[in-house]
Design a protein that fits this description.
single chain; 405 residues; alpha/beta; Rossmann fold; ten-stranded mixed β-sheet; three-stranded antiparallel β-sheet; 11 helices; 13 strands; 16% strand
């Protein structure tokens, strides 16, 4: 057991590394800006484990769905153990599951915000639709493993996600699920492009808050620059993180919302619960956005959901995605996926980047649940659609040439 003196010495050593970390962040920003400048000169031409035991589709009462904290035993590319903290919620009789993957500087709470009932709970919406949910804290976030920060990148994230999906399928959660969907947000969706395209282990993919051309300038100015080493934040003092783990400055998260329509108490709770990310997380996803090698291998149903006021994703291509309509999003995104993929799109009005935390969350969650019900392969207890009213958001179904797989 290390002594207190050792802890203080270790902390001083980490403090001495901070100037180098600031230089690294500056160099990283320079690299990203250079990549952005290069990207604007081209038209990107897309090509045509195990877990702790738990308790055990159609409509369900989410309040009666049993939920259990589980530890999914995953490993890094070098074989080192990297356990992921997660919450598994399983409606009785569920044979289909959705794994929820949050974005940068978040953890599980993004999908199930405490203290606000079920308004801001994608988890509860999917449980009501009859789906089991595995809500993970990604590598380097929440109570999951925090290896040395350079080990936390898109490749290791996608690998640990793959192992978590295998845990859903192979019964090591206490029950195996016949069909599994991947539901991502922001960086979690970009990781979903990599995971689904590389490992081919999910039946459907919901990408929220993400597209293949992003507003890098807003991402850099709004998120990366107003960040600081998490070891300087009292919230993370007991984590003993190295200086490569970052968290956002107070107030920086406002760029993720349409603040005109957001509930101020949600922004305050988000600030209170914020998590960490690695300095290597940010640049490691750029190759996928620039080359799209994994996305081109995705040949399953895909549902892209964006907020119409998303300052991180929406813009004028190639500096962002055309969010003028759901049809425009579909036109932009379809060529990035494989020839046998189907693509549906939804554009949620009066909504920023954090769809699950805006007041429109019930609408976007209903769209996701309804799409999964119409898209996932039938099972012994196939879920019935919970959408008894016309959609209240703009929604484009797969058209000619994008028949369902």
């Amino acid at each position: 057991m290390p002594t207190n003196q050792h802890h203080h010495s270790d902390y001083r050593n980490k403090e001495q590394q901070l100037p180098a970390m600031r230089r690294l962040i500056s160099a990283l920003v320079t690299f990203i800006v250079a990549a952005l400048t290069t990207a604007t000169t081209f038209t990107l031409v897309p090509r045509i484990a195990h877990a702790a035991p738990h308790n055990q589709t159609g409509h369900q009462n989410a309040a009666n769905t049993p939920c259990h904290a589980v530890t999914v035993n995953t490993s890094l590319p070098n074989g080192s153990p990297a356990p992921l903290a997660a919450t598994l919620c399983t409606p009785p009789g569920a044979t289909k599951a959705a794994m929820l993957v949050h974005g940068l500087s978040y953890d599980q709470y993004y999908w199930d915000l405490p203290g606000h009932g079920q308004r801001y709970s994608t988890r509860a919406a999917l449980n009501r639709a009859g789906y089991a949910t595995l809500n993970i804290s990604r590598l380097g976030t929440g109570k999951s493993a925090h290896p040395a920060s350079p080990m936390v990148n898109a490749d290791s994230q996608a690998l640990t996600m793959h192992q978590a999906i295998q845990a859903l399928r192979n019964g090591s959660l206490g029950q195996h699920f016949d069909h599994v969907a991947l539901v991502g947000h922001s960086y979690g969706s970009i990781l979903g492009y990599i995971e689904a395209g590389r490992y081919h282990d999910v039946d459907a993919f919901v990408a929220t808050g993400a597209a293949h051309q992003i507003q890098l300038i807003n991402g850099i100015v709004g998120i990366l620059l107003p960040s600081h080493p998490a070891m300087q934040d009292r919230k993370f003092h007991d984590y003993h993180l190295d200086p490569g783990y970052l968290t956002t400055n107070p107030g920086a998260r406002r760029v993720l919302y349409n603040t005109k329509t957001a509930d101020p108490s949600v922004l305050a709770e988000d600030e209170k619960l914020k998590s960490t990310y690695s300095v290597t997380d940010f640049p490691s996803f750029l190759p996928e956005l620039l080359l799209n090698s994994a996305s081109h291998s995705i040949n399953i149903p895909v549902f892209t959901v964006l907020g119409k006021d998303d300052a991180v994703m929406c813009g004028i291509p190639p500096l962002g995605t055309d969010c003028s309509s759901a049809a425009a999003v579909k036109t932009h995104e379809r060529p990035f996926f494989g020839p046998h993929a189907t693509l549906d799109t939804a554009l949620i009005p009066n909504t920023g980047h954090d769809l699950a935390l805006q007041q429109s969350a019930p609408e976007s969650n209903a769209q996701i649940a309804d799409w999964l019900n119409r898209t996932m392969p039938p099972g012994p207890h196939g879920a019935a659609s919970n959408s008894n009213t016309p959609p209240i958001v703009e929604h484009v179904d797969g058209g000619a040439g994008t028949g369902r797989h």
